[in-house]
Amino acid sequence: MTKTIVIAERDNIACVIEDKKVSEFFVHKGDVLLNDVFLSKVENILPSIDAAFVDVGIGKMGFLHAEDIIGKGTLKEKTSPNAKLMVQVVKEPTGHKGPRVTTSISLPGRFLVLMPFETGVNVSKKIESSQERARLKSIVSLMKPVGVGVIIRTEAQDQTETDIQDDLNILLEKWNDIIIAAEHNEAPSLLYRDQDLLYRVIREVCTEDVDEIIVDTSFAQNRASQLLQTWNMDKNIQITQYKGKDPLLVNKGIDKEIKAALQTKVNLKSGGYLFIQTTEALTVIDVNSGKFTSSATQDETIFKTNIESVHEIARQLKLRNIGGIIVVDFIDMTSRADKVKILEELELVLQNDKAKPQVGQLSDFGLVELTRHRQGQSLLEMFTNKCPNCGGSGHVMKEMKFADPNSNAVENPYQSKFSRVKFPKNNTNKQNKKRNNKGKDNNNNNVKQQNMPIENNEIKLEELLPSNEVENKIKETEIVVEENNIVETPQKNVEEKPKAKRTAKKRSTKKIAENPIVQEAEENKPQIEQQPQTEEKPVVVEIQNVEKETSTKTKKPRKPRKTKKEQAQTQVQSQLVEG
User: Fold this and answer.
1) Average pLDDT over residues 543-562
2) Which CA distances in Å does 343 have to 247, 336, 348?
3) Is residue 453 within 8 Å of 480, Cβ to Cβ?
4) Which of 142, 271, 295, 552 lies in disulfide reach of 300, CB 3.0 to 4.6 Å?
């Protein structure tokens, strides 16, 4: 496994690359950084939450819990309003929250950590050899000043006494400078900041497995070589200076890694993916199988996806510097053995994390809870700003328009269609009555016109036929009209005349004498027979055309119902005609 450290002092950004993947970022940006030392002023004491708020001069109040104040007694006995306290930042500000501070100051070095307000010597638990632990503890106990505490780091293992002494002297000089600055400055003010990014990265990350350190200035190259010589680490580590035209971070692809680390979705090699969403309360990581379908069974697919996601989750936690409560939603597994293997693999992967994550149990729903110590701002907080429109929620409120009771439907587009319907008023009923009366008058006029068809037909026949033919047609209609005064059109009379001829031949002379209507028809027979047959056809057609014109102009009204007497008379007439 190759390990490379890239330090861009011009951009105040550094990173660690393992197997061509970025595993950790170091960024020196912001008004307040981790391990900054301030001379603060107590603004308010709140016994209800057993804490005090101090002013550190950045616009946001620092949160100081009673347990983080050195001394014995209650909160009011330890401090008071307007008191001056020397505090150190242990948690950088996030969102609307200010930094969390403590009065227990610690100054980290390469091999040692100086604790000015503590006593005693402690050795790192990662040093397992009891003989080495005893050697280091005896060396430090003899060289440290009285009343000062020291923690021996893991990097001090197998180091000489002179190297440890040099590191302790550097820390003591820093502490003396802080005390002098506190005496001459007024609260609130900044007393100490570890501004040297190169020193911090080499101190925290550089180990024997590092192959190369890449810097962007010649000054950084010289200082890096001096530090490695001081710590006896210059044998296997190569220090190179980048001299390209493009920025160092762009040439090495670090800018793309930063953008990818800010995305919500993280793709896996097998085809699965992770969804990482951070809120103010906690961070949620969702595991999905995605396109991974190469396994033989479903259980095998789920297990391989969960195992691969465990390694990527451990990398993303360090890369994004995620702290606080973290909930991981693995794909549901039915086998208990698979669940145990997932938890064991997660514990092993997170062992090398300096933030000391603590893993909880796997629930029945496939959820795993873990906590990770916050170390400065997350990558999302350092490289992004909240949207001025949505405030970081990702949603913008729609413009709400409420209906005005005095506005018109055109002015208010949200008014319902039903409310736009115009219902008839009382005046419309009068108008409807007038229209009905007009309709009745028109019907009566139509009935009157149809009661006098002979006159109308005489006028039209005079225009179409000669005078002799018109007189014969009028006599034919009078045969039917005389007894009952029923008006029939000439078309019907012309059609019924041949029927009268046929029936008259079959009748006996007695019936003809008894029927006066038939006698009159017999008398008029010669007049009808004298007319040429060729002239009857056009007459019928013309009369039909006249009737069609009149029907199109006037609608036929409804015939009134006949009384019982009128019905009896019509039946008698029909029987006489048929007889």
Assistant:
1) 52
2) 42, 11, 9
3) no
4) 295
